[in-house]
């Protein structure tokens, strides 16, 4: 079946679910896209903005669906699956973005349903996301390809072994918050040195964006690129020394490790 004729459903339209569906609506016929949310007034408003369909009932929305995104928190997955499992068509694929929730655990809640597990991130809002995808043998090549095509409207999509999903959650799912803190701190420093706040945010954000693009486009090791900026006895190496003295590198490693451990605990 062509994706242009597939019924795509999203249960839960928070920041992440909303980001994905907004991107999908821009690329595929929005008349075939359905959303639901506990706050019906807000759900209807979002549906109007995206020109898609709002349905108030989870049981109703999954009927005749081909692809069902589960954009709810891990602690809600069990109740949502219990509610819809008898109404999901046998050929439908459910796509879960619940952190830490393994496919085997999802199947404990709904043994007869088929799942793809994904981990997107916030830049998916502007189609600059990094989305990891994992699935078992009961997902066909065609289905995996179509889900990948749906998600490519939100950013880069990569299939990973499920054992890496907790790592992915920490490294790309949580880390945008760490990057935002870095941008904020960089801007605060600029303001401290005399730059106006609005200008400081522009310089900080564009520098982070450009630096990330340089890593991706050149394929060079970040350490090599760092060294290329550090002139002997210059300003940059002085700043790098201060970062090392204050535990910058370890604080990042520790933050990602803590996020990883939390993701692991959510799946237990």
Give me the secondary-structure category. alpha/beta
Question: Rg from C-alpha positions?
Answer: 21 Å
- The CATH architecture classification of the largest domain is 3-Layer(aba) Sandwich
* Number of strand segments: 8
Q: Helix and strand layout, with pairings?
A:
Blueprint: E1 8-11, H1 15-27, E2 33-36, H2 40-50, E3 53-54, H3 58-61, E4 67-70, H4 74-84, E5 93-96, H5 103-109, E6 115-119, E7 129-135, H6 141-151, E8 155-159, H7 165-192, H8 197-218, H9 222-229, H10 235-245, H11 248-266
Parallel strand pairs: 1-2, 1-4, 2-3, 4-5, 5-6, 7-8
Antiparallel strand pairs: 6-7
Helix pairs in contact: 7-8, 7-11
Describe the 3D structure:
With 268 residues, this protein is α/β, with parallel strands linked by helices. It contains 11 helices and 8 strands. It has 2 domains: 163 residues, 3-Layer(aba) Sandwich (Rossmann fold), CATH 3.40.50; 94 residues, ProC C-terminal domain-like fold. It is 54% helix and 13% strand.
